[in-house]
Predict the 3D structure of the following.
Amino acid sequence: MNRTLTKPLADDLVRPLFHTSVWFYGIVLVAGTVVACGAAAWGYQLWNGIGVSGKRWPTFWALYLTNFVFWIGISHAGTLISAILRLVNAGWRRPVTRCAEVITVFALMIGAMFPIIHLGRPWLAFWLFPYPSAREIWPNFRSPLAWDFFAINTYLTGSLLFLFLPMIPDFALVRDRSTGWRRRIYGALSFGWRGTTKQWNRLESAMQIMAIAILPVAVSVHTIVSFDFSMANVPMWHSTIFGPYFVAGAIFSGIAALIIAMAALRKALSLEHYLLPFHFDNLGKLLLLMAILWGYFVFNERLTVWYGNEHHEM
Amino acid sequence: MSFRWGMVVDLDKCTGCEACVTACHAENNIPSVSPEQAVRGRAMHWIRVERYYEGDFPDVRVKFRPVLCQQCDNAPCEAVCPTYASHQNEDGLNAQVYNRCIGTRYCANACPYNVRFFNFFNPEWPKPLHLQLNPDVSNRSVGIMEKCTFCVQRIKAAKTAAKAENRGIPDGSLQPACAQACPTSALVFGDLNDPNSRVARLSKSPRGSKLLEDLGAEPKITYLSKQPWHEPHTY
Amino acid sequence: MAEAPMDRRHFIKLTAITGTSAALTACGNPENQIIRFIPEDDLVPGVATWKPSICPLCNAGCGVIARVMEGDAEVFRNGQPGVIRMGLAKKLEGNPDDPISQGKLCVRGQAAIQITYHPDRLDQPKKRSGERGSGQFTDVTWDEAIKELTAQLDALANAGDQKSLAFLTRPRAARRLDLIARLLQEYGAPAPVAHEMFSDEVLRRANAISFGSHQLPTFDLENTRYLLVFGADFLGTWNATVAHSAAYGRMRQRAGAARAKFVYVDSRLTQTGANADEFIACRPGTEGLLASAITAEVGRIRKTGTSAAVDLPAMIAATGVAADKVTRIAQEFADNLPAVAMIGGTALAHTNGLASALAVNELNRVAGSVNQPGGVSFVSQSPRVATRHLNELLQGDAPKVLLIDDSNPVFASPASMKVADALKRTPFIVSFGSFIDETSALADLILPDHSFLESWVASAPESGSAKAAPSSFGPVMRPLYDTRSTPDVLLAAFRGLAKPAAGLPNSFEEFLNQEPASQLPSPRPQASGSRAQAPSPRPQAPSLEPQFAGDATQYPYHLIPHASAAFYDGSLAHLPWLQELPDPMTSAMWGSWIEINERKAEELGIHQGDVIEVTSTQGSLRVPAFLSPGIAPDVIAIPVGQGHTNFTRYATNRGVNPIAILAPATVGDTGQLAWAATRVKIARVGDPDKSLILFGGATRERPEWAHGRGDEH
Ligand SMILES: Nc1nc2c(c(=O)[nH]1)N[C@H]1C(S)=C(S)[C@@H](COP(=O)(O)OP(=O)(O)OC[C@H]3O[C@@H](n4cnc5c(=O)[nH]c(N)nc54)[C@H](O)[C@@H]3O)O[C@H]1N2
Ligand code: SF4
Ligand code: SF4
Ligand code: SF4
Ligand code: SF4
Ligand code: SF4
């Protein structure tokens, strides 16, 4: 395996780190405005009460938790896909995985925000954390919301590691090409990487372990998210297929998100030489597969309800 | 002393008058939410009276059914509450600790009986309506779930008094506000642990059933069905 | 802290000083003793005290106990706001010692406490400063206000025109009315005018004719074996609902062969009717015909009937009830003695209401149920003071001074009666209301009364329990505001006259102590309160044929403006608990609705919540539709109570007032409004506009015939 990047390749990839275009500032501005609006809206909600969000009986959850599920689903783009591709040793994965893993981490952070925004009293959200309190009250480990808390945190930690580990050689690459404060930051991030065989071997086994470990975590996260619903007594929420249904949906939407992100990056950063049509082709096949699987689950959900003649579930 | 508070609702006696509904408001500081909020489905009634029309005019019948928290033994609302705000207390009550509630509204989704009510806004008591508030019952603020407590403040007071006087709580002497108010005495409250209490005896009635029994929530409220009238000579 | 009922009862016994135990001489009834309560101010913080009082909201006069606890109240004294620590009523419950309430209260009684703490209560006397009806008032002191009232009365007296003083109030049997009547009589003014939308005067009149008792009947529901009810919402809004419900609960307790049957006759399923074992739909206004037909049958079976020849088949045909059903009901009635028939509410509000009531009385007589266990009887009571009808006020010369206590005729009379115009012609109006409402807004002087919890209260129950006894109680709490008890204000004004009557008491409290009800001037001595006499042959029976206002082809529907479970006649629409109370039959809150038969609606293309225009000969209104299987296809119903134009923040401009479009038909020659005799037409004029607010809770399983059509509700 050739692990040395050719000089033009490395230059191409590192270029955006040294040259910031006005586009970047433009995008930061736009995104920043969106975030500021969101923060203001949240402030308004905190001040006036969660009622301003339009929730009511019987829709106690609605948009915030839909968003939560959506973003947690998107987060399955990365770690899960890249772990699968790594385990099946799909050679074409390389240009795809980094993008996928970054999506995971950010999507998770966005997703995890929503259950807090959705709380009636979000300033007490830390009660979900099992800290030793004077009252010796722990979170209720029977509640899927407590599982959510742990599952998301585990997945986030795992995904961060999964993202970070293979970036070490790349940080070293940037370190070697930069000067000043950049060099110091990337020096710290690259953990003294020198590219020795020993280091490569260790990294390789760490990634292999992570890939195996992260898979059940990813599956469990979305299964648990599905449990949030299926544990409640709301009609149409408690089909037994919710676990695989949600996971399939998550991977499906994750791949879609990945394709969109890759297409955008390819255009914006002129990576046409690296993100090739066949990458998109392969991801497309994967998307099709998940679409078929997900479609089957949708059908299946209706099927069992119809077969069982559960009219209130229809 | 160990208690297991329960209730029997005699549907044969319930006339749908809703005295219980207002009594519960008065006892438990339940706010009125305004028409603007009521139209959004945010009105709060810890006990409600459901009505079921059957048949067509003129052969039409109506059945009333008061529904309050069923104080489930195997309460779905408790399992899902991440903070134990909803939990089973030592008397078998489904207790709701307002201070501990962070407002996930999960319990309301889990409760099959739709008896949990959420404070979407801070309740308002335009002065001097606040003077009627029952000082024995804590007021709930925005973001908190609330529901029928079986008038736990009355239970606590009765237990304290009984303990101080070193006696039991005589059957019938302790009543939640709804049962106290019910003009037909359709609601019977008492200790299911005491086999001689009225509530314990009535809950074994062949007319008894539980709401949505197949869900397995094991409610502590038994509903006694309406009885038909027969020509006396057919007996 | 909540004490057990036993403790509470014990407590009341301890604190209530059993008064002079002066049995009322007229009745010689040992139960009739006056109970007095001396309020205690040594409250222990955090500990509840229960003090007795009387629910003022309807004629039943349920005994209540109020849970009083210490609290800090923002009060109003001598024109100054301040905070004082005092005993505050926290909750009302039925007084377990009271034979009427039997420890229970109805939904309205439970909410009565909000009257005292209402945010829009008037806190001191007001004098009109702008145009009549402009709603502009300035604050005046009590001294000024009473001086002004006295001056007006003196002016009338000086002009020898005492007859131009009129007093408008509710027809209540309470001692308050006794005092008012006495003051008017001694002053030389005509008897007080009594006005109430859902007045039971027709039934009293019928009972006077049939049984010699000008009062409402008391039913022994507990022991009856067969209960046949014509239109009386006796478990919801009619007469002593709490006493009825308590007895009904015990009636339902009996199982097996001892179980009573309850049959309900009406053109619409009321909350009461919903509890019946059998519902019999009859055409509006034909209740009396049906009762007569059943009477004839029962009389034939029991051989007790009068031999008056009646055209039975024709009568039955008019009611719309199948003939075999009538025979069966009559047979059951005769077979299951003691059986009792009851009439009230809508059935009395047709033009033939008096005849219908007489027919039901006759049924009870033929069944041998009068003054029998399980039947109907009349509690002994002191004579009621004579009152005049609102029409006398409107038709004669306008009074020069009009005093209005606890009455809102501007809201509670058809627009065609032009009450507001009559009031505008009256030079000086004094209202004793605690709130600005449609009527008090027209007053020149508002002298706000204490709330009942702040006053001496007295009641002399007219019916509800055979053990009913007069009682009076002192205030439960000190007043919040600079208000004064109306009887005391009246006494002050009349004692302050240039030529006051002799021997007037200083206060209402003194009046209650001083004078047993029996010593009052009784303008109707023949209506003695003793046991009902044997039925006298009735004079010239009025016609049983109902008449309706509005042509049947142009106005095809009967409008039933029924009493609302929450607001009764609308006088309680200002209480937020009751506004947000889901209506028992519809779960509707905070508004009005029109009840339409759901199949009829299907035919007319009307869906739940659609805006309907209802038009009578007198006017029209718009209201959302509620589709119900419990109403006849040619009948529509709108609850009374909403549609206030000026009645606190909670009731103003909410819903519609069906009274406004009623035709001024009267019940025979009684002068009472026949509020169920108006015909209307309906038209769908708009899509749902969110004014129909339903709490939910199922209203029905999806009907078979409606599968695949329309919305589920
Ligand atoms: N959270 C909190 N706890 C505290 C304190 C604090 O600041 N915060 N302060 C501490 C201090 S310094 C103190 S002194 C204690 C006080 O603690 P406690 O002594 O418990 O004080 P209180 O609650 O004021 O009053 C006790 C009871 O006495 C009743 N009482 C009033 N007058 C009489 C009377 O004449 N006779 C009888 N028999 N009873 C009467 C009252 O109604 C009340 O129920 O609390 C201590 N605990
Ligand atoms: S009825 Fe609902 S709120 Fe009450 S205990 Fe059962 S699940 Fe919980
Ligand atoms: S809303 Fe409150 S009581 Fe309900 S589950 Fe959430 S924290 Fe628990
Ligand atoms: S038991 Fe108490 S809290 Fe529960 S419904 Fe009845 S009055 Fe309300
Ligand atoms: S108070 Fe009693 S009779 Fe009335 S609705 Fe409630 S349970 Fe039924
Ligand atoms: S029936 Fe209801 S409104 Fe009438 S006096 Fe009794 S409690 Fe009050």
User: Anything to note?
Assistant: Residues 11 and 226 of chain B are 5 Å apart (CA to CA).
